[in-house]
Write a structure and sequence with these properties.
disordered N terminus, disordered C terminus, 27% helix, 499 residues, Lipoxygenase-1, Rossmann fold, eight-stranded antiparallel beta sheet, alpha/beta, 2 domains, eleven-stranded mixed beta sheet, elongated
């Protein structure tokens, strides 16, 4: 459960934002799609510092607007794409450590060479939140001015630009795309848990939207609401909107971890714990850079409830995509696509998704709500006693679908051991049934009969059917375990049916 302390601190933060807004409303400033960047004589220099990093150990070399010599001095390579990192609002006036982690990841040998630039607007971001919002428009204009100058002076196309904005920086990226104009569209914008307060529900011109670049992707990690506000924006704002673990909160970010973090980080752990789910978007993106062979797949779905039933694991007709840096830039329409996935609590974050469909015959007199465990044997690994909760009573001859995620790649699934958990309540019920019902000499079946288990792997898209190994003993009673093996004929029929 959520810690009351966590809620209290979060509400204080929300109240701070609301109190800052009192008498300080940003209001609808002029900001339309027709606005162009004022360069040349108008905008000669920027308050934002643009730092170019040549390698992982570099501290950054400042690119200065209309100073072409700084391009050569800093080592800008016009033949390579440009990736620009844009941080968000700051309440302590310091650049956060994740920035340097992302720079390192982008300059890693695992990634194709790119120009890496940081848009350092910390002096403008270290303001009251509502003031920082107003300043973010100026920063967006300055980013656009730099990109237009690069196009004019170095023949560098904006289509080769990838803006990565975190929190308020995501909307800065959108403002930059707005100011660039339709003929000079930015190639890609990635929003890492774009800021929610005072942006949720606003018009597309007042926030990041799919119109701001040729391709926009967004990762939502902290959309849980308190007092009508959420730190991260909940509504779709991109071509592809990714919602890891539903997007509301993230595993491993509970206040139970605070004591461990205090021992490791001191009092800074309080801020670290509060921001954990918000900044998880950043670490998911960095993870996609550092683990190219362990990319996380997300699946098109209407909501997390449907996803939790395992109903959305199909990749047909581009219904799935890769989270992070290596996303497939396929969908360019105006309508946003919402994708869901489950992740681990720590890096590497990749989890493996399976849909299980189990058909039961309930031979008890009343519907049951038992709990089960499954042991899964794969060609690579074995997972023991994975808990299963169906969430509803088992009625006769019904198929139940649910999502199961694993932290390990077990390979191709070859055997399932299905166990009815040892529950004192269910054991007593079973014993009572045994006493009350006169069985006689003829075999009388009473209990649960799992007829078949159908499995679909989200990552491989493989579908397999499993049947009871012992067809002479189909009944499942409390504490009992049944083994299911592949049904070769059923699998082939199923494959033919889905072609």
């Amino acid at each position: 459960m959520e810690s009351p302390l966590c809620v209290s601190i979060f509400l204080v933060l929300c109240i701070f934002i609301l109190s800052s807004a009192h008498g300080q409303s940003p209001g609808p400033e002029p900001f339309g799609r027709s606005h162009a960047v004022e360069t040349g004589e108008t905008l000669q220099e920027t308050e934002t510092r643009f730092l170019l990093f040549e390698d992982k150990t570099d501290k950054g070399c400042q690119l200065q607007l209309h100073h072409a010599d700084t391009l050569q001095q800093c080592g800008f390579n016009a033949s390579l794409p440009l990736v620009m990192i844009i941080h968000g609002w700051s309440f302590d006036g310091l650049l956060e450590n994740w920035i340097w982690q992302m720079v390192d990841a982008l300059k890693s040998p695992l990634v194709q060479p790119v120009n890496v630039v940081l848009a350092d607007w910390i002096t403008l971001a270290h303001q009251q939140y509502t003031i920082a919002i107003r300043k973010s428009r100026l920063v967006g204009q300055e980013v656009a001015a730099l990109l237009q100058w690069l196009e004019e002076s170095a023949q560098f196309s904006p289509s080769n630009v990838h803006l990565i904005g975190y929190s308020l920086g995501a909307h800065v990226s959108g403002f930059a795309g707005n100011y660039m104009g339709g003929k000079h569209k930015i190639g890609r914008i990635t929003a890492l848990d774009a800021a929610g307060p005072l942006f949720e529900g606003t018009a597309p011109s007042e926030r990041l939207s799919p119109d701001d670049a040729n391709f926009v992707d967004a990762i939502h990690t902290f959309t849980r609401e308190h007092m009508g506000l959420s730190v991260g924006i909940k509504q779709p704002i991109a071509h592809y909107d990714f919602y890891p673990n539903g997007g509301t909160f993230q595993p491993g970010c509970h206040f139970l971890e605070l004591y461990k973090d205090i021992a490791k980080y001191g009092l800074n752990a309080i801020t670290k714990t509060i921001k954990c789910a918000h900044v998880r978007s950043v670490h998911l993106f960095i993870d996609s850079l550092l683990h190219p062979s362990m990319q996380s797949t997300a699946y098109l779905c209407s909501d997390m409830d449907s996803f939790s039933q395992g109903l959305c694991l199909s990749c047909r007709k581009s219904r799935c995509n890769t989270l992070g840096y290596h996303v497939r830039q396929e969908h360019r329409g105006k309508k946003s696509r919402k994708l869901f996935l489950v992740t681990r609590a720590q890096a590497p974050f990749k989890a493996y998704h399976y849909q299980f469909k189990i058909q039961f015959i309930n031979q008890m007199e009343t519907p049951g709500k038992p709990t089960f465990t499954m042991s899964l044997l794969g060609t690579k690994e074995e997972m023991q006693k994975v808990p299963i909760t169906l969430g509803e009573g088992i009625t006769s001859n019904k198929t139940y679908s649910f999502l199961l995620t694993l932290d390990l790649d077990i390979g191709e699934l070859v055997m399932i051991k299905f166990k009815w958990d040892n529950s004192a309540v269910w054991t007593n019920v079973w014993n009572t049934v045994q006493i009350i019902i006169p069985w006689g000499r003829e075999p009388h079946y009473s209990g649960l009969v799992p007829k078949s288990i159908r499995v679909m792997s989200g990552e491989t898209q493989q579908r397999t059917t499993f049947c009871p190994e012992n067809v002479d003993d189909l009944q499942l009673h409390p504490t009992q375990e049944k083994t299911f093996v592949r049904c070769e004929i059923s699998s082939k029929k199923l494959k033919r049916k889905n072609r």
